[in-house]
């Protein structure tokens, strides 16, 4: 008998929920609050910089493997400016095809078959796929409502002799939790004591409405064991450009680069120059982005509450988790599958981000990185069906 075409480590990985739901949105003419992408592009001057780079022949041929020097310098300057962190642009930065490739290359570089990777669930869907590609085993530690705080005892208990690394994501997609300084300090202490690597996905670092973003790498003993990942997609509203990066010690960056060079080698030449310029935008840009999204968060939270959803107000990211139990609904997956036809709105069932499906059964995620009129219309449509 012929064996299945898809290699068995990846069995069960179908189309991503984001692709599935975006296709449903198009097919039904629904408002897409599923996949997280803004419906307004980032700054015009940055788009102009990308266009000029193409026309002036900057980056149209393969850029250097680690990224163009201008972007590596800008990433280093960004880490210094916002967090007081120092990196060497020559050896401690690697530009990637979005955070997606950064996570994939990092896990493929650091994880051996049989290694265990601890991640807080619900987790971003590519983590499970990448751990599987590396032959690792994922070990979830569940973030629970209402606050989705990391349970540090559970984390300690989850560590075994086979644990290789902790995969963190703060601000956290999909819950919107922002890990606090004491929480991150405690996680760092555990990582040092148990001699674990930490991979930290910080793509929503500038989308924080309550509290502040703390990079875990700043705690004692973390610099040598942390791979930090971020991306321009969320910060500059150009998710299609796919410019991401990692920062870490030369040894960690070299390991990840070894994999990355055989995945894409390089990508996005002209966009790299534009993002170098974007990272240097003044504080007012970053403040405005946050303030605008905070208003949209408040609009969605109030609107969903009024309709009757349970609402977990996010401290960060551009996602809001709503509980449908209050509406008398019990299954988020079924709810999201029928929502486009029922209401003309698309949302993502949070259960897809859990191993423990029960934990997220009645939760659904709405993206609020859309124009206010669009959010208002989505709320009107939901209100008609559920109030
Ligand atoms: N990590 C998280 C937590 C995300 O939400 C996303 C998605 N947008 C990514 C990584 C991927 O980022 P990019 O689009 O830069 O590949
Ligand atoms: N990060 C986006 C989200 O969480 C989706 C990106 C993708 O479709 N891969 O909605």
Overview of the structural elements:
With 387 residues, this protein is of the alpha/beta class. The chain has 2 domains: 8-42 and 284-386, Alpha-Beta Complex (Aspartate Aminotransferase, domain 1); 44-279, Aspartate Aminotransferase, domain 2 (3-Layer(aba) Sandwich). Helix content is 42%, strand content 15%. The protein contains 13 helices and 13 strands. The strands form 3 sheets. A 7-stranded mixed β-sheet has the order 2-8-7-6-5-3-4, with helices on both faces. Helix 4 packs across helix 9. The radius of gyration is 20 Å and the shape is globular. The model has no long low-confidence stretch (mean pLDDT 97). Glutamine (GLN) binds at residues 16, 18, 35-36, 173.
Main beta sheet: 7 strands, mixed
Structural class of the helix and strand makeup?
alpha/beta
- Characterize the overall form: globular
Report the radius of gyration as a whole number of Å.
20 Å
CATH class of the largest domain: Alpha Beta
Total tally of structural domains: 2
Helix content: 40-55%
Question: What is the overall pLDDT average?
Answer: 97
> Which strand-content bin applies to the residues?
15-25%
Span from first to last CA? 54 Å
CATH fold type of the largest domain: Aspartate Aminotransferase, domain 2
User: What's the architecture of the largest domain, going by CATH?
Assistant: 3-Layer(aba) Sandwich
**What's the CATH superfamily of the largest domain, by name?**
Type I PLP-dependent aspartate aminotransferase-like (Major domain)
Poorly predicted runs are: none
- Reading the helices and strands in chain order gives HEHHEHEHEHEHEEHEHHHEEHEEEH
Major beta sheet, strand line-up = 2-8-7-6-5-3-4
- Tally of alpha and pi helices: 13
Number of strands: 13
Molecules bound to protein: 4'-deoxy-4'-aminopyridoxal-5'-phosphate, glutamine
């Amino acid at each position: 008998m012929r064996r299945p075409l898809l290699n068995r480590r990846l069995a069960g990985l179908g189309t991503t929920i984001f692709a599935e739901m975006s296709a449903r949105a198009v097919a039904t003419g629904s408002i897409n609050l599923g996949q997280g992408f803004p419906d307004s592009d980032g700054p015009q001057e940055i788009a102009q910089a990308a266009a000029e780079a193409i026309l002036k022949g900057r980056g149209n041929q393969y850029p250097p493997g680690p990224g163009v020097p201008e972007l590596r310098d800008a990433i280093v300057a960004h880490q210094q400016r916002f967090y007081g962190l120092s990196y060497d642009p020559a050896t401690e930065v690697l530009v990637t095809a979005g955070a997606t490739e950064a996570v994939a290359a990092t896990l493929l570089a650091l994880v051996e078959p049989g290694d265990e990777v601890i991640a807080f669930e619900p987790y971003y869907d590519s983590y499970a796929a990448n751990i599987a590609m590396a032959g690792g085993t994922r070990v979830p530690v569940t973030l629970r409502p209402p606050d989705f705080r990391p349970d540090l005892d559970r984390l300690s208990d989850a560590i075994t002799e086979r644990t290789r690394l902790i995969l963190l994501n703060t601000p956290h997609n999909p819950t919107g939790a922002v890990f606090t300084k004491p929480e991150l300090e405690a996680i760092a202490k555990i990582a040092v004591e148990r001699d674990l690597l930490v991979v930290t996905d910080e793509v929503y670092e500038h989308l924080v409405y309550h509290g502040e973003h703390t990079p875990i790498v700043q705690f004692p003993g973390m610099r040598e064991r942390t791979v930090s990942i971020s991306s321009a997609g969320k910060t500059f509203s150009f998710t299609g450009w796919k410019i991401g990066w990692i920062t870490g010690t030369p040894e960690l960056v070299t390991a990840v680069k070894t994999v990355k060079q055989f995945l894409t080698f390089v990508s996005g030449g002209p966009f790299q120059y534009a993002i170098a310029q974007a990272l240097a935008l003044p504080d007012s840009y970053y403040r405005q982005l946050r303030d605008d999204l905070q208003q949209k968060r408040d609009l969605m939270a109030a609107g969903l509450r009024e309709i009757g959803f349970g609402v977990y107000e996010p401290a960060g990211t551009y996602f809001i988790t709503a509980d449908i139990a209050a509406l008398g609904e019990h299954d988020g997956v079924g709810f999201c599958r029928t929502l486009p036809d029922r209401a003309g709105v698309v949302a993502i069932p949070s259960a897809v981000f859990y191993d423990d499906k029960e934990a997220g059964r009645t939760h659904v995620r709405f993206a609020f990185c859309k124009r206010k009129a669009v959010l208002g219309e989505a709320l009107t449509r939901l209100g008609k069906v559920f109030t």
